[in-house]
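for the recovery benchmark. tokens below, seq after
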């Protein structure tokens, strides 16, 4: 992902005001008044987002919880009565809470490691719980999407690509990197993590205007008494509430789950042409599992807009090994594909075989072609004609190029 470029605060605020808490409720628009903001304080150098292709070192999950608690920077459970109200509400059914947290654990652990890279307060690792419970909420029209609940315009600001085949807002790796970079910048300007949460929910410019009018809020009360909408104040309360449960789970009769190190998520650079199903087979995992971890990809064929895949460490190592062993060859075909060619039966996918000279007694395979149908992959075509993906690539100069419906492929060398 390209480094995030700082935009004028007015533009940034109007875009980020759409990050509302409930994933099923359209966010309220930000204020329309646009007075000139005060000069920004000197901002420290901000880490630049890196291309999300480098694996993050796996660590024991129990240590993740300890590190997360150690990185908390805001008030504890007893700072405000409403914090405890929401903490008890989250854990009123301990079994359900534990199941939900276990389902979200791999994403939570990944977010924790990215937050640590950007030096963002640990409470914000739990922000996707408040927004979506770490679920990849699909976006409809201009509504928020992904576990961070990002609208398309905000996605553009933080460098997330969105089109019909790929939605970066649903990409755990890319969206988390962009959001953490943004939160880091907010703190450099606002110098208060509570205001950072307000800015995430309400918009940075709106919060800066409040600070200009009412001054920097004191450390107490924990929920600043600034004239913000109830939903914004409640957003911070919920964030502190789920942080409260993580601080002291026994207080709520719940246990926090653990995750084996080889199941910690990391990204793998897609350096070979392949499909999602082919990548899953090469990684030794079910295609449905890989698709669930990568909901940003809307088609089976991977292209230049999906430079990486997110998967557990164990599977990531296997896929990297498969790509290294394949060299420059295409990996669209799965490693588990049958060695024997399919039976030669009539199929609408096969073109008629052109005959040779009248003296030939056997049909010649020279000069065969195939017209690509919608949804077909190179691997499927190669199987249908008992040839190889690398042969089709070489004959049709397809290295690094996606198939297009209606495209005519050569099947044999002249």
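predicted aa per position
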């Amino acid at each position: 992902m390209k480094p995030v470029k700082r935009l004028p605060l007015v533009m940034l605020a109007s875009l980020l005001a759409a990050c509302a808490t409930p994933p099923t409720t359209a966010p309220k628009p930000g204020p329309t008044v646009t007075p000139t903001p005060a000069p920004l304080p000197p901002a420290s150098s901000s880490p630049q987002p890196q291309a999300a292709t480098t694996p993050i070192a796996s660590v024991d999950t129990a240590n993740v919880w300890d590190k997360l608690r150690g990185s908390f920077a805001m008030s504890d459970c007893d700072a405000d009565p409403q914090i405890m109200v929401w903490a008890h509400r989250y854990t009123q059914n301990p079994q359900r809470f534990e199941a939900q947290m276990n389902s979200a654990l791999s994403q939570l652990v990944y977010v924790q490691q990215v937050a640590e890279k950007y030096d963002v307060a640990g409470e914000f690792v739990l922000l996707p719980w408040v927004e979506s419970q770490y679920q990849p909420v699909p976006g409809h029209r201009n509504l928020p999407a992904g576990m961070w609940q990002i609208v398309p315009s905000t996605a553009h600001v933080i460098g997330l690509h969105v089109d019909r085949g790929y939605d970066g807002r649903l990409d755990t790796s890319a969206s988390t990197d962009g959001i953490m970079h943004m939160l880091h910048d907010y703190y450099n300007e606002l110098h208060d993590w509570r205001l950072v949460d307000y800015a995430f929910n309400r918009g940075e410019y709106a919060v800066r205007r409040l600070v200009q009018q009412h001054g920097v809020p004191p450390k107490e009360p924990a929920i600043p008494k600034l004239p913000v909408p109830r939903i914004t104040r409640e957003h911070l309360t919920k964030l502190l509430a789920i942080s409260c449960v993580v601080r002291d789970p026994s207080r709520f009769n719940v246990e926090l789950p653990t995750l084996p190190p080889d199941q910690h998520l990391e990204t793998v650079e897609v350096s070979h042409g392949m499909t999602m199903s082919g990548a899953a087979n090469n990684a030794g995992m079910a295609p449905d599992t890989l698709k669930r971890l990568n909901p940003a990809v809307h088609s089976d064929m991977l292209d230049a807009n999906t430079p990486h895949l997110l998967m557990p460490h164990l599977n990531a190592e296997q896929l990297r090994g498969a790509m290294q062993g394949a060299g420059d060859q295409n990996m669209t075909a799965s490693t588990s594909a049958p060695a024997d060619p399919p039976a030669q039966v009539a199929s609408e996918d096969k073109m008629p075989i052109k005959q040779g000279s009248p003296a030939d007694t056997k049909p010649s395979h020279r000069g065969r072609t195939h017209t690509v149908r919608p949804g077909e992959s190179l691997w499927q075509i190669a199987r249908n004609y008992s040839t190889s993906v690398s042969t089709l690539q070489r004959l049709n100069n397809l290295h690094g190029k996606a198939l297009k419906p209606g495209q005519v492929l050569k099947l044999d060398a002249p």
